[in-house]
Automatic annotation (TrEMBL):
Domain Tetrapyrrole methylase: residue ranges: 8-219
Stored CDD domains: SUMT
Tetrapyrrole biosynthesis uroporphyrinogen III synthase domain boundaries: 270-356
Keyword Methyltransferase: yes
EC assignment: 2.1.1.107
Assigned protein family: Belongs to the precorrin methyltransferase family.
Keywords, comma-separated and alphabetical: Methyltransferase, Porphyrin biosynthesis, S-adenosyl-L-methionine, Transferase
Transmembrane helix listed as a keyword: no
GO MF entry, a single one: uroporphyrin-III C-methyltransferase activity
Protein name: Uroporphyrinogen-III C-methyltransferase
Pfam families tied to this protein: HEM4, TP_methylase
Length: 478
């Protein structure tokens, strides 16, 4: 028997907004060799993992197949027994309708060590983001979590008669869209007033959140009208009326805006964060990974002997300094003239005690260091040698996620941070979607990028988004 057992962490991903995972959850993701994730765990969280981590999707696929529970348990056990650090990433809290009991039992049976890391459960998060406090001194002194859908064995329990005092307070129904008519009817039959307020919250805490409000009598019709679907949470009780004064998320300036950010450099994740924080559904696509280059002894020699050394990226600075140091060089061996392209790179050099100059054309020879794409077509010298520090590749592990997110959402606008991102975006979009990408509105950073987008066929500028990019507000607030 293998004595070198691995570890399993059952991690609550929170309800959707990636800011709602715990720091402990993030630590687990960083350590993971393999992550098994569900449909309701925000896939953006997978970016916290290392680049060698393996992802396994356990949710529903387009052909409606789902990874069976036994298969999930088997995989968890098998991977842990190989000595792997396995993360089981679950939407919300793993213990709330999350089957953590079954999975943890399977792990415990093999004496594999494990953690259960709680998460913010969707009923509490959905209520918060819809402006509904689950308890309130004047309206509700209890909060009950229920399922609107149970396996055969428990069916009777869903509609069991709760005690009179219990139905006076706040009720949250998970998995309850289909069963909503039955839920409302049975609550009324049990004595709950038919004008008791109810709210249904779809995709809570994300930019695509939608809220429908009514009473036990009207909510079914309203949900049907708005075509709300899964995942959605139903909150029933007098506390729902507080929404009218404290709903806050819906007031965000980009609430419900569906934005793609064409990925190509590190900046787009700053944009993703900025727009998500302001209420948008924002997703940087495609996900790329950068592979560091290992400089040869000759290349390092060229670097130290350069007349001018130009850094095009922060990663380039990090890589060159580490590799020079390993090869027994140090800061005293660097060329006298060091230059930067961006302010971020200047700051990185400053951290290392170096005052650099802003790169500009100069006829003296130079070596340029940065990501493969970033250093293409730069003209800083007639005698310029580019030594790429990193190559950029599409991260194929995100195939499933990209396919699902691209087809599941009605994207409105795409942001292009630079020209290269436009090419990459179009190339990848066509892999996953049959829709015409030119139907999307767009916004771009800088005039030349905008012109390039128009040349490629994009023709409608999203003024609201463009304004944010133009006044650089997103940079200050990130
Ligand atoms: N463990 C999860 C619940 C899993 S059961 C948790 O603690 O939240 C799946 C149900 O959770 C869905 O049918 C839906 O009712 C609810 N749910 C999960 N995420 C949601 C979200 N972002 N918005 C609305 N409902 C959500």
């Amino acid at each position: 028997m293998n004595t070198n057992k691995g570890y399993v962490a059952f991690v609550g991903a929170g309800p959707g907004d990636i800011g709602l995972i715990t720091t402990k959850g993030i630590e687990c993701l960083k350590k993971a060799d393999i992550v098994l994730y569900d449909r309701l765990a925000n896939p953006r969280l997978l970016r916290f993992t290392s680049k060698d981590c393996v992802f396994i999707y356990c949710g529903k696929l387009p052909n409606n197949h789902i990874m069976r529970q036994e298969k999930i348990n088997e995989t968890l056990v098998a991977e842990a027994l190989k000595g792997k650090y396995v993360v089981r990433l679950k939407g919300g809290d793993p213990s709330v309708f999350g089957r953590v009991g079954e999975e943890a039992e399977a792990i415990a049976a093999y004496d594999i060590p494990f953690d259960i890391v709680p998460g913010v459960t969707s009923s509490i998060a959905a209520s918060a983001y819809a402006g509904i406090p689950v308890t309130h001194r004047d309206y509700s002194t209890s909060f009950t979590i229920r399922t609107g859908h149970a396996c055969k064995k428990n069916e009777a329990a869903i509609h069991h008669k709760p005690k009179q005092e219990a139905i006076g307070d706040t009720l949250a129904y998970y998995m309850g869209v289909k069963g909503l008519p039955g839920i409302c009817e049975s609550l009324i039959a049990q004595g709950k007033a038919s004008d008791t307020k109810a709210a249904v919250i779809e995709w809570a805490t994300l930019g695509k959140q939608r809220v429908v409000e009514g009473t036990l009598e009207t909510i079914v019709e309203k949900v049907k009208e708005a075509k709300l679907g899964n995942p959605a949470l139903t909150i029933i009780g007098d506390v729902v009326q507080l929404r009218s004064s404290i709903a806050w998320f819906e007031k965000k300036s980009f609430y419900q805006k569906k934005l793609l950010i064409a990925k190509s450099s590190s900046e787009e994740s700053v944009l993703e964060r900025y727009f998500s924080k302001n209420g948008a559904e924002a997703y940087a696509f495609p996900t790329i990974k950068s592979n560091p280059h290992s400089y040869t002894a000759e290349e390092l020699q060229l670097i130290v002997n350069a007349e001018r050394l130009i850094f095009a990226s922060v990663e380039g600075v990090e890589l060159v300094f580490t590799q020079l140091f390993k090869a027994n060089y140090d800061v005293r061996d660097l060329p006298r003239q060091i230059e930067h392209l961006s302010d971020k790179t200047r700051k990185e050099l400053e951290k290392r005690g170096i005052h650099s100059l802003k790169a500009s054309y100069d006829k003296r020879s130079a070596i340029l260091i940065g990501n493969e794409q970033a250093i293409e077509k730069q003209a800083f010298s007639d005698n310029l040698l580019a030594l790429p520090s990193h190559t950029i590749e599409i991260d194929e592990r995100f195939q499933e996620v990209n396919e699902r997110l691209l087809t599941e959402n009605q994207w409105e606008t795409v942001i292009f941070p630079n020209k290269r991102s436009i090419d990459l975006f179009l190339q990848e979009w066509r892999k996953f979607s049959t829709e015409n990408p030119m139907e999307l509105s767009f916004a771009a950073i800088g005039q030349s990028v905008q012109e390039y987008a128009v040349k490629q066929g994009f023709n409608h500028i999203d003024e609201q988004v463009q304004q944010v990019l133009d006044n650089q507000k997103w940079k200050c607030e990130s």
